[in-house]
Amino acid sequence: MSAEDQANLLRVLINCAEKAANIARTCRSNEELLALLVQEKKGSEANERFEHDFKTLADVLIQETIKHEVGSLFPAMKDAILGEESPNFTNQLGESVTIAVGSCEEETASCLQAVLSGHEGAASALAKEVHQEVNFNSEKLGEIPPLPEELDYANLGIWIDPIDATAEYISGDTMFTDFPGITSTGLDCVTVLIGVYERDTGIPVIGVVAQPFGEKLEENVYSSSMFWGVCLPSLQAHNCHFEARDENRRLGIFSSSEQSDILQRFLDLGYEFAFSAGAGHKALKVITHEVDVYLLSKGSTFKWDTCAPQAILRALGGDVLDYTASVAEQKAVSLRYLMEDTESDADWKRNAGGIIAVRDVNVVEELLAKLSEQ
């Protein structure tokens, strides 16, 4: 029996997302440890939209943990599991260390000690989370469907964003919008994004989005909110059964840097606005039916930001579109995730034309007509 026959890929990804959430919460629970783990991104790793962009050891460790676990269980997918972060980390002594998940807890702890400059307790705590067996269950998770037997794992790739909204993760400061349930900044904006796509078509087919700080149990104690969707020719399923906030109100969610003329066009169509951090978080608000559309006209998101939400939205009858191409062609043009010939060019990973995320593709026609007006 092959490894693929022994495990349900969706269940594995859900458990990986929860393990990622555990690592994120472990790092975030100690301010001294969090300060120790933060490293500013430089050069091609940085997002040009932000004056400062950071990666944390939690980011890198989560990414490498997911790659290790999925690659072990589904070896046919191993070479097509990609993420946002470089596995190279510089410790406080200026030494460059490559983060790798070992075959056992002790090996991983040894690697982490090199990054953490001898902080054995912190390294051991993180290694324990990496190798701990996780089986996420919640009454909101829903029934995990068996995946089709004919699924070709060699034709599947994965995009991982281990911690989306890293700045919010680091600061933890929460600001609320005028709309109940939608935060502008804060830990609520932090998501773990794991998206599966077909390598031959570039179509996203399985998505898992976790909020590590989705439910506050008590002060500084959180549990995860978990969302998933599958959109295959022979299987369409999800756990995102949400009623619209108010059918008589239209709400869009945007980055605070969105162009004023685009916002005006939404205003002309009767939309209200919410502004929030985190591409994954904003897409999630579309998934949960709290907003109708998320639009970003700039090419500042990447494949790891959109693959997972798009798969879930497709399972719901929605999609994530290429903003520029859709407006130009006056029809919905879906984002695709085809691998480019030259991986040395970081731009192939970018959603260069901007994005439009919708839960109902029927709203797109009116939006595109308005957005194309001169």
What does this structure look like?
By secondary structure, the chain is an alpha+beta fold. 33% of the residues lie in helices and 24% in strands. It has a six-stranded mixed beta sheet, with helices on both faces. Strands 14-13-15-17-16 form a five-stranded mixed beta sheet, with helices on both faces. It has a two-stranded antiparallel ribbon with strand order 1-2. Helix 2 packs antiparallel against helix 4 and helix 5 (105-115) packs across helix 6 (120-131).
Global morphology: globular
According to DSSP, the number of beta strands is 17
- Rg, alpha carbons: 20 Å
Major β-sheet profile:
6 strands, mixed
- One letter per element, helices H and strands E, the order comes to HHHEEHEEEHHEHEEEEEEEHEHEHEHEH
First and last CA, distance: 60 Å
Pairing-aware structural class of the strands and helices? alpha+beta
Spatial strand arrangement across the major sheet: 3-6-9-10-11-12
The oligomeric state is single chain
Mean pLDDT: 87
Q: How much of the residues is beta strand, in percent?
A: 15-25%
Low-confidence stretches: 1-5, 46-54
Proportion of helical residues: 25-40%
Number of helices: 12
